[in-house]
Design brief:
This protein has 244 residues and is α/β, with parallel strands linked by helices. The chain contains six helices and 14 strands. Helix 2 links the parallel strand 1 and strand 2. Helix 1 packs across helix 2. The protein binds ribulose-5-phosphate (5RP). It comes from Heterostelium pallidum (strain ATCC 26659 / Pp 5 / PN500).
Length: 244
């Protein structure tokens, strides 16, 4: 019956979400346990997995200096009662822990599913190490196997049409990211727009990242090339897979 179908759908969606949340928590907790101690200067990434990193820091009572990568991340730090700083006061960080939308076999990442890639990249670049925390669905050999929404690219609003045209001429399929209610474009924490550039396959990630970055109007891309040194992927069976 229709009622049965509805019940099945609701419960299976709920179960999937529970599995994913468990995997995110496993990754976040292990990354903190393995990499953080009091006294460190820590970049705090953005997204749903990073919540568990902040939870674990709080649970362990670690006295770390936290530099956020977004408005969301600032709220997480403040709400947890952790020490909040910024790159003006703390320009050099020991480590950043952040999420990712897809991580390839070389630890290159696609980031920006939450439109935070500009500040995330700035904070990661100010850090000695970037450690990624993610559930098992982000674990990939080559980009596009897992993440289907394309490369998030932050652009200056007045440039979005010429930037999209240039991306199309590079065999990418650019889509302007719209707000959930479709009332207008998503606006980043830096008052820019986000273009998601879909692709068939990427032969040279570093080359593509440079080409996109060179387009006038592009502020930053969600391709993080050679930045991460370790990734933790929470698994369905309760273990955590590491990649270095
Ligand atoms: C935000 C990001 C996030 O780190 C990325 O989208 C992963 O998010 P989640 O932990 O929710 O899967 O890059 O711009």
């Amino acid at each position: 019956t229709a009622t049965n179908v509805k019940c099945y759908t609701v419960s299976s969606v709920k179960m999937d979400k529970e599995i994913l949340e468990k995997a995110k928590k496993l990754a976040g907790y292990k990354a903190v346990d393995d990499n953080l101690k009091s006294g460190l200067r820590v970049g705090i990434g953005s997204g749903s997995t990073i919540k568990y990193v902040v939870d674990r820091i709080k649970e362990l009572g670690l006295d770390v200096i936290c530099v956020p990568t977004s408005f969301q991340s600032t709220q997480l730090i403040v709400n947890a009662g952790l020490t909040l700083s910024d790159l003006s006061r703390t320009p050099e960080l020991d480590i950043t822990i952040d999420g990712a939308d897809e991580v390839d076999s070389q630890l290159n990442c696609i980031k920006g599913g939450g439109a935070c890639q500009l500040q995330e990249k700035i904070v990661a670049a100010a850090s000695k190490r970037l450690v990624i925390v993610a559930d098992f669905t982000k674990d990939s050999q080559a980009f596009g196997q897992q993440w289907k929404r394309g490369i998030p690219i932050e652009v200056v609003p007045m440039a979005y049409v010429p930037v999209m045209n240039k991306l199309s001429s590079m065999s990418l399929k650019p889509v302007l990211r719209m707000a959930v209610n479709k009332a207008g474009p998503v606006v980043s924490d830096n008052a820019n727009f986000i273009i998601d550039a879909q692709f068939e396959s990427i032969s040279n990630v570093a080359e593509l990242a440079t080409k996109i970055k060179m387009i006038p109007g592009v502020v930053e891309t969600g391709l993080f090339v050679n930045m991460a040194s370790r990734a933790y992927f929470g698994q369905q069976d309760g273990t955590v897979k590491e990649r270095t």
